[in-house]
Amino acid sequence: MISINLGLLEKTVVLFYICILFYSTHGDSKPLGKRAINEVQLMHNLGVHKHAELRQDWLQMKLREIHTASEKNNEGKTGLLSDIIPNLKDLNQREAEDIIAVLEKLVNPS
């Protein structure tokens, strides 16, 4: 049998360490007290905010992937009114009336 000769101070320190080890491993990991209602609301709001940020980041990423027009189609067009007018001269009366009706609806949506 091995005998360990410890003084009173060493025995106290060893017992103290054993108690700390015992209570730290047998904890229930429950919170010390109930959360206040405002803490619960704050945590809920934080979760909602994080979810909204993730959704916005995802949407931004998807919008960056969308290509609406090619570069080749826009090289020859300047978008000036003088470039558009010759094309309007080729319209017949019915097409011109339809375009005017659409423009009026855009200007006066009511």
From TrEMBL:
InterPro entries assigned: PTH, PTH/PTH-rel
Gene Ontology molecular function: hormone activity
UniProt keyword Cell wall biogenesis/degradation, yes or no: no
Localization of this protein: Secreted
Pfam families, per the entry: Parathyroid (PF01279)
UniProtKB keywords: Cleavage on pair of basic residues, Hormone, Secreted, Signal
Record has Secreted as a keyword: yes
CC per GO annotation: extracellular region
Alphabetical GO biological process terms: intracellular calcium ion homeostasis
Function: Parathyroid hormone elevates calcium level by dissolving the salts in bone and preventing their renal excretion. Acts by binding to its receptor, PTH1R, activating G protein-coupled receptor signaling. Stimulates [1-14C]-2-deoxy-D-glucose (2DG) transport and glycogen synthesis in osteoblastic cells.
Annotated family: Belongs to the parathyroid hormone family.
Subunit structure: Interacts with PTH1R (via N-terminal extracellular domain).
PANTHER family: PARATHYROID HORMONE
Identification of the protein by name: Parathyroid hormone
Organism classification: Eukaryota, Metazoa, Chordata, Craniata, Vertebrata
Gene name in the database record: pth1a
